[in-house]
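Practice problem 4.
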């Protein structure tokens, strides 16, 4: 991470801590804040005016307002942290906020409030020249009033289509917030050859313009979620290249898969047992429906509702030209006379058209991309299977008593083995990162809590006096 990115991250992280509902202990805050600030090595010729001098909260606020140099601001913060008091820390919040803004400006990152966005996405890389009716470039403009225009061109700069529409003010705010969060932070420099590119122009309400560019492929912007898909959802348009080039001009609305297994007894040809499954992925309801049945013996149904995830999944499938190729059986195949497995698939598209396919449910009879399709569906369904009422780690857990000690199992990066530590902090939970002592030389490292148990001294797995204690939660992890 570059130094300016580190400074921005430092300011953002400590602003979050200091503006939270509850401060951690003052000693922990000051020690960690001083250590991280010193690691950034702020230096300025005029920093001597701050060293060894104590200022009031108001004096510090005035100095912060007057400083426009990032290094000088850093030296001011560093020099005053030792005397930091919670009751008079307004100056520090102002200083960190200004530090974050100055770091963004130094990196050319966006700041302010968005007035207009203009995005040009060109989906032509290298290779065969595009067809005359093939859409290659899109110019998308969005303003603060929710007015949107789209110009689409072929590879020879001929206008193929133009459209304009409007979204609600709430949608505009939602969209602009996402753009602000992305482009006010340092983004990875990912440029790929043989693909298209995008150029983004953002103008704020102060008439300042910020420029960004990148390669047009699925990982062109890497942060918490799929930015391109999220923008398509807000704009209610699947036919946009955005940052990944994954436009879908005829979206999939519904996929239905039916499966039957019939077992036949050779000695009783009139008797057969039918087992069936059905899978439906539906955009309108935002759901996955899965059913099983075995004749008249039993029937089960499962319903999973997750509109954003379902819509995203169907959009992904829409970019794949799904179920186009089936290998088929060789001419000398030997049929199984005892068991038959059949399937039927129907895909419903937004324009009302349908795609249907059926055959034997095996490697040669299924579409060649079946495994990718069903793996993606299973991955989403498995997210819903994190049950708690069946989980012994939850229903066997008991409340802590006054006699109990809190034991935390901690693991370290690159090591799956867990180690026991004691803590007096009842707010720690599984997944927290904590500072812990290691070895006997006073060394400290950071580990992750993977389990928490309560034991009395008599039931403890190790002697209490031989177990090290957690120093505290790692702030900012």
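Answer key:
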């Amino acid at each position: 991470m570059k130094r300016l990115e580190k400074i921005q991250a430092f300011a953002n992280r400590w602003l979050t801590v200091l503006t939270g509902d509850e401060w951690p202990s003052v000693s922990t805050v000051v020690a960690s804040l001083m250590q991280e600030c010193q690691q950034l090595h702020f230096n300025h010729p005029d920093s001597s005016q701050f060293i060894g001098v104590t200022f009031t909260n108001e004096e510090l606020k005035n100095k912060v307002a007057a400083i426009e140099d990032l290094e000088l601001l850093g030296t001011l913060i560093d020099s005053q942290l030792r005397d930091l008091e919670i009751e008079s820390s307004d100056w520090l919040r102002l200083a960190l906020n200004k530090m974050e803004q100055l770091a963004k400006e130094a990196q050319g990152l966006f700041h302010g409030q968005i007035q207009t966005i203009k995005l040009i996405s060109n989906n032509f890389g290298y290779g065969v020249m595009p067809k005359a009716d093939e859409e290659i470039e899109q110019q998308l403009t969005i303003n603060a009033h929710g007015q949107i225009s789209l110009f689409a061109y072929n590879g020879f700069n001929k206008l193929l289509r133009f459209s304009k529409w409007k979204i609600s003010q709430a949608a505009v705010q939602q969209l602009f917030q996402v753009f602000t969060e992305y482009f006010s932070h340092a983004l990875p420099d990912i440029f790929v050859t043989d693909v298209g590119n995008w150029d983004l122009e953002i103008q704020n309400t102060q008439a300042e313009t910020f420029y960004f560019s990148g390669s047009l492929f699925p990982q062109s912007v890497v942060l918490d979620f799929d930015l391109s898909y999220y923008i398509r959802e807000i704009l209610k348009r699947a036919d946009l290249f955005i940052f990944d080039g994954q436009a879908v001009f005829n979206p999939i609305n519904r996929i239905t898969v039916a499966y039957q297994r019939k077992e036949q007894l050779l000695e009783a040809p009139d008797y057969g047992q039918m087992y069936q499954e059905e899978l439906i992925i539906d955009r309108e309801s935002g759901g996955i429906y899965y059913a099983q049945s075995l004749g008249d013996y039993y029937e089960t149904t499962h319903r999973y509702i997750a509109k954003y995830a379902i819509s995203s999944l169907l959009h992904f499938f829409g970019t794949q030209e799904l179920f186009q190729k089936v290998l088929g059986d060789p001419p000398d195949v030997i049929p199984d006379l005892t068991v038959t497995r059949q399937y039927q698939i129907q895909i419903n598209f937004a324009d009302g058209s349908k795609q249907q396919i059926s055959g034997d449910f095996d490697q040669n009879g299924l579409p060649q991309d079946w495994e990718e399709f069903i793996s993606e569906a299973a991955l989403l369904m498995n997210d819903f299977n994190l049950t708690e009422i069946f989980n012994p780690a939850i229903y066997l857990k008991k409340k802590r008593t006054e006699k109990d000690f809190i034991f935390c199992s901690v693991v370290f990066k690159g090591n799956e083995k867990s180690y026991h530590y004691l803590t007096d902090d009842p707010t720690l939970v599984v997944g927290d990162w904590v500072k812990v002592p290691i070895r006997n030389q006073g060394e400290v490292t950071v580990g992750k809590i993977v389990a928490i148990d309560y034991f009395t001294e008599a039931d403890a797995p190790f002697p209490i006096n031989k177990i090290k204690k957690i120093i505290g939660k790692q702030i900012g992890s």
